[in-house]
Amino acid sequence: MMTAHDTADRRHATRDTETHRRIGWVRVGEDTTHSGWVKDMAADGMAFITPIRDQPRIGDVLDVTVDSYGQRPECHRVHVKRVSSFDGFFTLVACEFDRESASSLFGAVNHG
User: Fold this and answer.
1) Nearest to 94 by CA among 6, 5, 4
2) What's the CA gap between 41 and 53, in Å, rounded?
3) Is the pLDDT of residue 1 over 70?
4) Residue 17's pLDDT is what?
5) Which helix (H) or strand (E) holds 76?
6) pLDDT value of residue 100
7) Closest CA to 60 of 22, 91, 104, 37
8) Whole-angstrom Cα distance, residue 68 to residue 74?
9) Residue 4: φ, ψ to 5°
10) Of 31, 46, 61, 87, which residue is the least packed, with the fewest Cβ within 10 Å?
C-alpha cells in the first residue's frame, strides 16, 4: 500500500485528461509490448488503463510511448506507484516519470 507521502503531489496536480490517446508499454528488460489508453497526465506522472491480463506490478519500471496524433510520439520511462481495478476487464495504473532515465533513453522528451 502507498503512504500519504507517495500520493500527495500527483493527486493534487493539474492533469491533462485526454483519455483517448493510445499507449504502448513494455517492462524494462522484457520484449513484450502491451497497449492501453491514457487516463490522465501531470507534470510528474501519468495514469493509464490496460487490460487486467497485462497489468504491471507496483515497483515495475516501464517504457511508455504515447500517441501524439500524428506528431512524434511522447516517450517516458515510468515507475509504477499504484495499480487498482478499473472495471471487470481493465486496470488503472498510476506512474511517476523517471526524468533521468527517459532523457538518456529517448532524447528530447515531452513531460506533459
Assistant:
1) 6
2) 23
3) no
4) 60
5) strand 74-85
6) 76
7) 91
8) 7
9) -60, -35
10) 31
- Give the cell for residue 14: 493539474
Grid coordinates belonging to 30: 522484457
Kindly give the pairing relationship between strand 74-85 and strand 34-42.
Answer: unpaired
Rounded Cα distance between 44 and 102, Å, is 12
Q: What is the dihedral of CA 102, 43, 35, 67, to 10 degrees?
A: -90
The answer for residues whose C-beta is within 8 angstroms of residue 41's C-beta and 6 or more apart is 15, 16, 18, 47, 66, 112
CB 37 within 8 A of CB 23: yes
Residues 49, 98: contact at Cβ < 8 Å? no
pLDDT tens for each residue of 29-58:
999 999 999 999 888 999 999 999 999 999
10 has a pLDDT exceeding 60: no
